[in-house]
Structure formats: C-alpha cells, structure tokens
Design goal:
ATP binding; ligase; ATP-binding; Chorismate Mutase Domain, subunit A; nucleotide-binding; six-stranded mixed beta sheet; about 20% strand; alpha+beta; Rossmann fold; Lysidine-tRNA-synth_C; 3 domains
C-alpha cells in the first residue's frame, strides 16, 4: 500500500463527520509530508476544513525564517496557517525537550475543538526512540506502550497517521513529490537523549537486527493491550472508590492487595494528569499521605500538581488560579462559563422534583451574581436548623479546604441564594427551577 493510501485510510477511520483537521506543522520532513497528504485528502473531500499551526519556540536563530517558510508552504497547499509564539522557562529545571513539547501541545490544544483531529508526524523510528527512552527510565507496561496511534486530546482527538511508517519511507515519498523541508540544526546535537539514540544507538541496533523497529512496535502494542485490559477489569472497582470530587477512598484501597492498590492509584492519577508518579513516588503517596497520622495535613508534590488527603480520601490538586475576585451575572436559562476550567453553571427549568438544588422562581426578585469568595457570608440551608457561616457549612458538608474557594456561590444582593451542588437557602427553596453545575 502506498503511503498516500495508508494516510487516507487512517484519516477516514478516525475523522468524525464534520470534524476539522489541525496539522502540527514544524516544517520538518514529517510534518511537511503531513501537510501535503492533508491537501491530497481534501482534494477528495472538498468540504473538509484544514488548519496548519506552527509553534515558534524562539530557541533557534533561524526560528523567524522557519516560520516564514512554513507559511509559504501552507499558502502553496492552500491551507490556512496560524503561527503561535511561546516562551520557555529555561530555569525551571526541566529539559528543553520537555519544555518545548509541553508548550507545543498546550498551544495546539487551544485549536482543537469538539470532533477536530490533530495530526502530528511521529513515525516508526520515533516510536523506537520513545520505547528505548521509557526503558532507560525503568518504565512499566504503561510507559513501554509508548505512543498510541490515536488518543483523546483537548476537546477532540490526536492522530499519528505515520506511526507505522519508517523515516526512510517518509523521506522517499517527500522526494517523489518534490517536496522541500526544514532541517533543524538541533536535531544533530547528541547531548539530547533522543538525538543520541537516533544517531549513535539505533543505527547500530538496526544494522545487527534490521527488523528491530517492527519488533518494538509489536512490544509496544502488546504493552498497550495489557494496560487496556487492566483498565477494563479494574474500572468498575475504581469508580466505586470515587466521590463527587473525584477523591479516591483510602479504606477501600487498603482492602486491596498492594499490586491492585498501586494499579488503581495509577489509573486514578492517569485520569487527572499526564505526569504519572514513579514507583518510589507511588510508595510515598501511600505511606506518607494515605497512611499519615489522622491529625496531619499531608501533601505530595508532583510535576504537574499535588496529592492531598481529606476525610479519608485522596485528592489530585492541579495548579489553580485564584478565582475569589471573579464574579458574573446569572439569568435564568442562560449558562455561565466559570473561570479556570471549573465548568458551567445554569439556572433552568427543574428536571427533578426532589432535587436539593431546586429554587422558587418567585423569590428571585433581584439580579443574581455568581461568585467564589465565601468570606463573611452566612446561609440557612433548606432542611437544616439555623444559619451558619459558609466557612462552617463547608466543613460540615466535608468540602476539602482547597475546593472551598472554587465552589460557585449564587448571590442576590447580599443574600446567599445557593451554593452549587450543596444546598439552597431556605428563603429561596422551591420547585420551579434548578441550579446545575456541570463540571
């Protein structure tokens, strides 16, 4: 099968109807071929929307020239082009490779909407390098499964249509199509681990074992299948451990064997963050956080957040913006988008007659505002005796301390109407409309 037909078949299988194709376009041979293949595919599907996104890291003296050349290639293929500029914190302690990758995917995510597919140019040789890097780190089956052909990404999907194609086949296709591309001088710098493998290690292996790349592909797929099977078998048990804030119950985990407990914790964290803990960190998580003294406030800091304990549950706490100064008007039937990925709040027609979050429309006589600052506020929850400070109510409702200033409060003037997902004040409780917090 030709490379072009392989691309067409792969994209056809993974592109939802009405979805747009976003191309991560660096200008290297892989993404240059992707750009051309996407244009060929569009020739057969004229209604398909394409977008090429180039990320300018500013790490090379040639970065501006690369951007200009990429824009010219996109124009020649009649594909809309967007350039995004990012700056890297080179003092963070992370590798330049990791910083650049994280920044690139963060920018690309902002362009991927529901049903969109992001195309990236990783190929079979890249998969071998990724596998060996995971092996160097001592990764288990999850890490050794390396890169998937497709995976959820932002609001859409990430697709690597060249993942089973060798670098040499990609370059051969580029030559036959008379394509030109950029050569990043940093790709020759063997101080970087991936480049060291590419230039010093993998060629020697391939000379001895010419089918090594294909063997790695099989091993990676087997590891991925094993992980999928574990997830399928353990997902019901994990879901039974979770509360409404996605906290995982320590007592339930403690009744599992250490092997099952560790796998459940990995699965739980995988749903929260891409930076999974090492084996040592996993032991620290259990011994120093889950099993800490009852009066302790343990906190394990990882690369992209931290793990904390509250009321016999473990919680993943991602880096958070301060939203206490944020406020916005709320009208009936008009959703409000909350800040910092906190979801959406809607006051609409009641769908559940017995819901705790239903209100009396006649009592809502003044403009309403959504806010997050509970300081100084009091409320009298429907069905309970007496008024309490919100600070005290949050404790009684067992809301983790880091969630208390991230839970939407509905106000009318200086009165608390409701706290989302917790209670409605007795003066506003009814059955006409319902407050829904879609997280």
């Amino acid at each position: 099968m030709s490379l072009a037909q392989h691309f067409i078949d792969t994209l056809r299988c993974h592109l939802p109807d009405g979805g747009r194709v976003v191309i991560g376009f660096s200008g290297g041979v892989d993404s240059r071929v992707l750009l051309h293949l996407a244009a060929l595919y569009r020739a057969q599907h004229p209604d398909l929307e394409l977008l090429a996104v180039h990320v300018h890291h500013g790490l090379s003296q040639y970065a501006d020239q690369w951007l200009e050349q990429c824009e010219l290639w996109a124009k020649a293929e009649q594909i809309p082009f967007v350039a995004e500029y990012v700056s890297l914190d080179l003092e963070s302690g992370d590798s330049i490779e990791q910083l650049a990758r994280d920044a690139r995917y963060q920018v690309l995510a902002s362009h991927v909407n529901t049903d969109d597919v992001l195309l990236t140019g990783q190929h079979l040789d890249d998969q071998t390098e990724t596998f060996l890097l995971a092996l160097k780190r001592g990764s288990g089956p999850k890490g050794l499964s390396s890169m998937a052909l497709s995976a959820p990404f932002a609001s859409g999907k990430l697709l690597r249509p060249l993942l089973d194609v060798s670098r040499s086949d990609i370059e051969h296709f580029a030559h036959t199509q008379q394509l030109t591309w950029l050569e990043d001088d940093s790709n020759q710098d063997t101080r970087f681990d991936r480049n060291f493998l590419r230039h010093k290690v993998v060629p020697v292996i391939n000379k001895r074992w010419p089918s090594f790349n294909k063997a790695v592909r099989r091993s990676a797929r087997l590891c991925a299948k094993q992980e999928q099977l574990l997830a399928e078998l353990l997902k019901p048990e994990l879901e039974a451990c979770l509360n409404s804030f996605q906290g995982v119950e320590i007592d339930t985990l403690s009744r599992s064997s250490p092997l099952k407990r560790d796998q459940l914790l990995r699965m739980w964290l995988e749903a929260q963050t891409s930076a999974l803990p090492s084996e040592i960190q996993l032991q620290q998580l259990w011994n120093d956080v889950a099993l800490a003294k009852p009066d302790a406030n343990p906190n394990l800091v990882l690369a992209s957040g931290s793990i904390r304990r509250f009321k016999s549950h473990l919680y993943w706490v991602a880096p958070q913006e301060d939203v206490t100064q944020w406020s916005k008007s709320l009208t009936i039937e008009t959703p409000v988008l909350l800040p910092d990925r906190l979801g959406e709040l809607t006051l609409g027609n009641s769908s559940e007659k017995n819901s705790l979050m239903t209100l009396n429309r006649a009592a809502l006589t003044e403009p309403m505002v959504v806010m997050f600052e509970p300081e100084g506020l009091s409320a009298h929850p429907h069905g309970r005796a007496g008024s309490r400070k919100l600070k005290k109510l949050f404790q009684e409702y067992q809301i983790p301390s880091w969630q208390r200033r991230r839970t939407p409060i509905l106000m009318m003037g200086d009165k608390v109407v409701a706290v989302a997902n917790l209670f409605v004040d007795k003066d506003f409780y009814g059955s006409d409309c319902e407050l829904v917090w879609d997280k």
